[in-house]
Amino acid sequence: MAVCGPAAAEGGWDSTITARPSYGSRTWVDKNVDSTNAYVKLYVCNQRGAVAIFRNRQWPVPDVTVKDTTWSCDNGIYYGDTAAGDYHFTLKKTSNGGVLDANVQVRY
After folding, report:
1. Exposed, middle or buried by CB within 10 Å (0-12, 13-18, 19+), for 42?
2. C-alpha distances out from residue 83 to 4, 6, 50, 54, 70, Å
3. For residue 27, which phi and psi values (nearest 5 degrees)?
4. Residue 90: inside a domain, yes or no?
5. Tens of pLDDT, residues 27-57
6. Tally of CB atoms within 10 A around 22
7. Residue 7 domain flag
8. How far is residue 1's CA from residue 67's CA, in Å, rounded to a whole number?
9. Cα–Cα nearest to 32, from 78, 72, 87
10. 19 beta partners
């Protein structure tokens, strides 16, 4: 008899950031070996803002925008079960135009 638990993410990382708009995160590699709904979560933030999540492509071809959204602190930015590839997010703006301090959680 086999017992299956809940689906787990293929990978992920946790960090903190202190960043201004145009900050680009580190890159992560999603091999798409699962069907997990991937997300980026910014929490314990000092403000709201806008983030874009990209799938990297070889220069000079522009990266593919996977999700472009505003967020309120503590809400996950879900971008689905995406194609295999290298991903990163960019902080596009902050609610007051200044520095964002936040914890970051990425699951893919």
Report:
1. buried
2. 25, 21, 23, 12, 23
3. -95, 145
4. yes
5. 999 998 888 889 999 999 999 999 999 999 9
6. 9
7. no
8. 41
9. 87
10. 100
| Residue from 62, 48, 47, 66 nearest 108 by CA | 66
Q: Note whether residue 44 is domain-resident.
A: yes
The total of structural domains in the chain comes to 1
Cα–Cα distance for residue pair 79/64, rounded to 1 Å: 13
**Is 36 inside a domain boundary?**
yes
| CATH number for position 20 | 2.60.120.510
Planar angle of CA 42, 48, 51, nearest 5 degrees: 60
Side chain identity at residue 96, one-letter code:
N
- Structure confidence by residue, pLDDT tens digits, 1-24: 444 444 556 899 999 999 999 999
Tell me the residue range of the domain where 68 lies. Answer: 12-107
pTM above 0.70, yes or no: yes
At 85, the amino acid letter reads G
